[in-house]
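Format notes (please read before filing issues)

Several people have asked whether sequences and structure tokens are stored in separate files. They are not. Every record keeps both together, in the order shown below: the sequence lines, then the token lines. Line labels are part of the format and must not be stripped during preprocessing.
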Amino acid sequence: MLLKYINTRYIIFLSLLLPIVSTFSCKPGNRDKDNNVFRMAVSSEPPTLDWNLATDSISIRVIENIMEGLTQFDQNLNPVPAAASGWSVSGDGRTYIFSIRDSVHWSDGRKVTAYDFEYSWKRLLNPATASQYAYFLYDIVNAYEYNSGQLKDPSLLGVKALNDAALQVRLKRPVVYFPSITAFTATFPLRRDIVEKYGDQWTEPGNMVTNGPFTLSEWRHEYSLTLTANRNYFGGRPRLDAVRFYVIGESTTALTLYETGGLDIVSLPPLAIPSYKNHREYIRHPLLRGYYYGFNVEKPPFNDRRIRQAFSMAIDRRAFPEILKGGELPATSWIPEGMLAYNPSVGLRFNPDGANALLKEAGYAGGAGFPVVIAVFSTNPENLLIAQNLQAQWKKNLNINISLDNQEWKVFLKTLQNNTPPIFRLGWGADYPDPDNFMNLFTSSSGNNRTH
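Then the structure lines:
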């Protein structure tokens, strides 16, 4: 979960982590040579910094430090003005007009205009872009038709810059949470001249222009990214001179670097939590996030609903908080606790007898004759613990052997996109605080739905 601290003008990632003394300082004598640089780890190289294309938390974490959308969230998760100074809504709730602040500039000094938002949104919806987040804008007039190829003329889309300072959005129906959507990275403005000039290289340092509190000044691929304070940021220059992300694949290595003064914040691996949970630097923060294993419903054997149900009913979810040790909550409801429409009574409960009855009905009594299945997940200590636990539960409760395939993050994302495995691990965090964000994920039109 990314939290923006407006008063200090920077963004950090908070989950199970250990800030040193405070969220932006560390132990004396172990500072970066520039003592106003905040250092943190990411577990993998960001797959892309193109905000029309980014879908993963690592890329989005960086993008939210360098970009600003029309809105942002306050501490109560309400949308408030950001690059927009405000907005008006028609009486029927179908037309929004966002007013762009005159003080918002790109890092090269040029003003951010409504045309930058119009270009970005039309690029997001362009089928050639192949954005997985295009469906976020399907409530806009003709958005689905254009993205699906039924409509060829982008001028018929319900998004239009009326002038430099006014963006008009026409919706198919009233959508009360629409301003919240405009806080998400995929909707951030984009400079057409930069994309057309540099092509696929527009996200590299020296090419990219941004409008957020920091700019991308250095990207040493597979090693580090450095963000430098943006003097043109409309909210004022950040207190930090820079933020440096180090690519560190092993959480134990990151923890060692934290302990020796090489990092200013770190996420704890599960085995370390008992040793640190009473430490004054330990922070435990709730997230609107779900962690799940999905099935490819178009591939045998999981194209059979009975088998999918059997696998779900064979899982005792109470085991996961015990092995992860971070206060996680076992869930059968997809909408997370703390969000409107959360209902803990929905979903399939742990029921080994019922699971085996379904398995028998599907033709695999006692697990006999069940095909070889591989469960795929991305490299991460927590993911490995959960995968091994699931493997053991499915063996114990269904007498089915499942193989495990642990893949590096970018490789894993390509696997999901090009050849979705029978079983795969993913997570979903709230892009905006409305149950629509969770319930839309598994619809047939969702670009993030990997079950089909």
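For reference, the curators noted about this record: The radius of gyration is 23 Å. The chain has 13 helices and 18 strands.
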